[in-house]
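[INFO] parsing input record for Cytochrome c oxidase assembly protein CtaG
[DEBUG] input buffer:
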Amino acid sequence: MAFGADRNSRLALRLFAVVAVMVSLSFAAVPFYSWFCRTTGYGGTTSVATQAPKDVLDREIIVRFDANVAKDMPWKFRPKQMEMKVRVGETGLAFFEAYNPTDHVTAGQAAYNVTPDNAGKFFDKIACFCFNLQVLKPGERVDMPVSFFVDPEIVKDADASQLKAITLSYTMFPTEVPEEERAVGADQDSAGASPATRLAVGPGAASDQTLEQ
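[DEBUG] output buffer:
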């Protein structure tokens, strides 16, 4: 009996260890999948660059822009231009507008995607509002930029070299408002601060630029 009980205890411990490992791997899979998509462009995930390439080719490509809001996101969100032509390797600058029609401070985070999928690894963003959490005061309207280029390496890719157009799409998701932002929003509301247009920039920026309307 003692032997059987001991064997059952060891089996239970092994099963517990297996479950623990599987749970750990499930959490690790999320950042790994995100890294894999950013690195390979799988699923239309774009790349991030610190600077534009030195070579600008004569070939032009159309970049189209699309904006959506997730369920329960109260913001109005739209591209300020439907499309633009850029040369491969040339830096483009586009703007998206977000508006908070509610009577309270709200926050959002943009997720992005590029179609067709095989263009994702050749579409590089230098600066983007999607790098940062966006917080809007009641009635606030902001213009948010994205700086990008199409990597010249696209012309060497058998699948993507013949592309004439690329679509950059964003979906804005609701998120929790940081505590410090709630306090700032409450102070500005009580002081009667006017809405502003904030130009959010990418990682490494000291702060967002704010232009009073």
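[INFO] Confidence is low (pLDDT under 50) at residues 25-44, 190-213.
[INFO] shutting down worker
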